[in-house]
């Protein structure tokens, strides 16, 4: 395919090119091209993973996205805000397993002030000074900004001073406002999401980027998402990794059908071809399972993501894959790669 030849020759794919790839049925050709690009970027034949845990400090959320099965109202019987002792216990268990990263996110709770977040970070860092806090997605940052009356940069400065190390890419969904208005009408715009990330990057903070595909977006809108990430990365260089994952419709107000494995692999591979300036591409075993994540390593992915000793949001949507670290290592080896534990900055800590 001329489009793939263009990508392999180092040319940038434009919008029409990308849409044509999504429409195409040439899955194996697209996957092969993405694999070749992966080899150029990561010739050492290593696939990395991080030992981490997702901690959702609250499930109370005023945004009530139609695609989410996790959120609760403040007065619901199963609504919660974790105590600092509960958070300590979860982090200690992670550290005991060799963990280096905590991915901490929560709902947009209307009653939690800025001090809640800064105090939580400070206390965690006092108890666990070496744990990397990869926490608070752009919607949370905007929410804290609104509650505190401070600018996004001022909020980020205060969170960083309290112990925040980097920002996860949650809340991106599809970076197109038609889609966002339909699936999460009370959430931030795509421009606000990008602004938080670029502000963090310009402060020297690294972040990740995500995409939740397969809800109501068109291929053109999915393409817009990738191009907008590429443009932001051209400007700041602050995205360490990209993680696409498929919408999980069970137990959600939005409903619908889950994406097929073919659609996942095609989207992953096209992402590798388009995002020529984002170094790492993560497989999503959380939504796809270990076998599909293993196949992803031949479709452009170079990272298996986190071990995720705890994950609640996707599980609430009826998908509950659990992949122990031994199985991750085995899957990577079986795919012909050397497994390596990394930290959040993609520094190798240990080979297996």
From TrEMBL:
One of its GO terms (biological process) is menaquinone biosynthetic process. Pathway: Quinol/quinone metabolism; menaquinone biosynthesis; Cofactor biosynthesis; coenzyme F0 biosynthesis. Its cofactor is [4Fe-4S] cluster. It holds the Pfam family Radical_SAM. InterPro entries: Aldolase_TIM, CofH/MnqC-like_C, CofH_family, Cyclic_DHFL_synthase_mqnC, Elp3/MiaA/NifB-like_rSAM, F420, FO_synthase_su2, rSAM. Binds 1 [4Fe-4S] cluster. The cluster is coordinated with 3 cysteines and an exchangeable S-adenosyl-L-methionine. S-adenosyl-L-methionine binds at residues 67, 173. This is Cyclic dehypoxanthine futalosine synthase. It comes from Thermincola potens (strain JR). The lineage of its organism: Bacteria, Bacillati, Bacillota, Clostridia, Eubacteriales.
